[in-house]
Design a protein that fits this description.
Layout: H1 10-18, H2 26-37, E1 41-45, H3 51-66, E2 73-76, H4 80-93, E3 101-104, H5 110-122, E4 126-129, H6 131-138, E5 150-154, H7 156-162, H8 165-172, E6 180-185, H9 190-199, E7 204-208, E8 217-223, H10 229-238, E9 246-249, H11 253-263, E10 270-273, H12 279-290, E11 296-299, E12 314-317, H13 324-331, E13 341-347, H14 352-362, H15 373-378
Parallel strand pairs: 1-6, 1-7, 2-4, 2-5, 3-4, 5-6, 8-13, 9-11, 9-12, 10-11, 12-13
C-alpha cells in the first residue's frame, strides 16, 4: 500500500514524499487507520519496521487539522537516545508543517533544562520524554498536560524492564482520562497486557512478526573461548573492507573499553559508547558513526533498540545476550527496511544455554560458522559442538 491510499492530509503526504517514503510497512498500513479513527492501540512489531512513523503520521495529521494551542501529544520512551531520534524524525516530517516538538531527557546541559521548562509551561505540540526527567519537571508544578489528547508509550516493554512502571503511572495521573492511548512494543509479555488494562480503553491489538529476525539478516554463530574473541573479531573486520558500518554489542561497560583497545587500527576508526559518556559526547559519537566517520562502534545494550542508524553492514554480539529477546533487537540493527546485513554471535561454553534460549525463541538453529584455521591452531581449543545442521561448505555464512 502507498501512503496516498491512506486518509492523510495532502500536507502530510508531501512531507512523507519529501522524506523519501513511498510505500507503507505492514505496521503502518494497519496502525494508521486505527489511530486516525481515534481508537486506543497496542502495536507489537519487531525493531526496524517503521513503528515510529506509524503513530507520528496520524498524530501530526490531527495536529495540522486542529492546530491546538496546547500540548497535543506526550510520547514516553525509555532512553534519551530514543527521545532524540523521535524528535529528529518529527522535525524532519514537520519541516513544512509548523509543528513544534521537544525532547525532554536527562544528562544534558543546564540550558536544556530552561528550554524544557519553557516548552512544558507553554506547550509544544509534541513532547517526547524519558520518565525520570519528566517527573523532575512535574514535581515543580509548572507542567501543563491537562489538555493532552494523545499519550504514546514507545518501547513499552523496555520501560517496564527498566522499572518505570510507577513513574509511568504517576505521569499518567497528570493527563486527562479522556484521551487516546497508543502503546508500541517489540514484545508482548504479560506485564504489558496488565498495564494496558489500567490505562487503555478497548484497545485494538496489532501484532506482526513478533520476535523474529528480519529475512535479510544472514546469521552465524562462532563457538569459541573468550580469549579467541578479539583475534577473531580483528580478522573478520580486516577481511571485510566493504563493511563500512559495524556495530558490536558487549555485556558490560568494562568490556566496551577492552574491545575498543583490542580493535585499535590505523586502517579504520573505532569508538565505544556507554553510560560512562556524557550526553553530548554520546550524541557526537553517534553522529560520527551515522556519518561513517567511525567505522566500528562498540556499545552496551543501550543501542539495541530504538536507534535509527541506517545501513549497518555487520552486527556482532561479542557476548551472547542473556535475554533472548535482546538478540532479536540487536540483530534488528542490520537489514533494516528490506536491506540485507550480517549478524554474528560469539558464544563460549558458558553461554551455550543462552544460545539455546535464542534458538528456541526464533524457532530455528543458527548456522555454526567454522573458526579460521589460525584461530583454532594458535589459541586454546574452542568448545566441541557438532554443527546445528549439515554444512555444505567450509566457511562463510548461509541464510536460514
Amino acid at each position: 500500500m502507498t501512503f496516498d491510499e491512506l486518509d492523510l492530509d495532502p500536507d502530510i503526504l508531501d512531507a512523507v514524499e519529501y522524506m523519501g517514503f513511498r510505500e507503507t510497512t505492514p505496521i503502518q498500513e494497519k496502525a494508521i487507520p486505527v489511530i486516525l479513527k481515534g481508537d486506543d492501540l497496542i502495536g507489537c512489531a519487531q525493531t526496524g519496521t517503521g513503528k515510529t512513523a506509524a503513530y507520528l503520521l496520524p498524530i501530526m495529521n490531527e495536529i495540522i487539522y486542529k492546530r491546538p494551542p496546547h500540548t497535543h501529544t506526550l510520547i514516553l520512551v525509555p532512553t534519551r537516545e530514543l527521545a532524540l531520534q523521535i524528535d529528529q524524525q518529527i522535525q524532519g516530517l514537520a519541516y513544512t508543517l509548523n509543528i513544534t516538538s521537544l525532547a525532554v531527557y536527562g544528562g544534558g546541559e543546564g540550558s536544556a533544562w530552561d528550554q524544557e521548562r519553557e516548552a512544558l509551561s507553554h506547550g509544544a505540540d509534541i513532547i517526547v520524554a524519558t520518565p525520570g526527567r519528566l517527573i523532575s519537571h512535574l514535581n515543580l508544578g509548572y507542567v501543563r498536560f491537562n489538555e493532552v489528547e494523545t499519550l504514546v508509550l514507545d518501547e513499552a516493554d523496555r520501560m517496564l524492564d527498566i522499572g518505570f512502571y510507577d513513574d509511568i503511572m504517576k505521569i499518567i495521573s497528570f493527563v486527562p482520562k479522556k484521551r487516546q492511548t497508543l502503546m508500541f512494543s517489540a514484545t508482548m509479555p504479560p506485564k504489558i497486557r496488565s498495564l494496558s488494562k489500567h490505562i487503555m480503553k478497548n484497545p485494538v491489538e496489532i501484532a506482526l512478526e513478533m520476535s523474529k529476525p528480519a529475512e535479510g539478516v544472514l546469521q552465524a554463530v562462532y563457538l569459541l573461548e573468550d580469549n579467541q574473541k578479539l583475534p577473531l573479531l580483528n580478522s573478520l573486520i580486516a577481511d571485510k573492507p566493504e563493511y563500512h558500518s559495524i556495530l558490536i554489542f558487549s555485556s558490560t561497560k568494562k568490556k566496551v573499553h577492552e574491545i575498543v583497545r583490542g580493535l585499535r587500527s590505523r586502517e579504520y576508526s573505532v569508538e565505544g559508547i556507554s553510560s560512562d559518556l556524557e550526553q553530548k559526547a554520546r550524541e557526537e559519537t553517534l553522529l560520527r558513526f551515522r556519518s561513517r566517520r567511525t567505522r566500528v562502534l562498540v556499545a552496551t545494550d543501550v543501542l539495541s533498540r530504538g536507534i535509527d542508524i541506517k545501513d549497518i553492514n555487520l552486527v556482532v554480539n561479542y557476548d551472547a545476550p542473556s535475554d533472548a529477546e535482546d538478540y532479536v533487537h540487536r540483530v534488528g540493527r542490520t537489514a533494516r527496511a528490506e536491506t540485507t546485513g550480517v549478524a554474528i554471535t560469539l558464544v563460549s561454553k558458558a553461554d551455550m544455554f543462552k544460545l539455546q534460549r535464542i534458538e528456541k525463541l526464533i524457532g530455528y538453529n543458527v548456522y555454526r560458522a567454522p573458526l579460521p584455521d589460525f584461530i583454532a591452531e594458535s589459541h586454546s581449543e574452542a568448545p566441541s559442538h557438532r554443527p546445528s545442521r549439515p554444512q555444505s561448505r567450509k566457511g562463510g555464512f548461509r541464510r536460514k
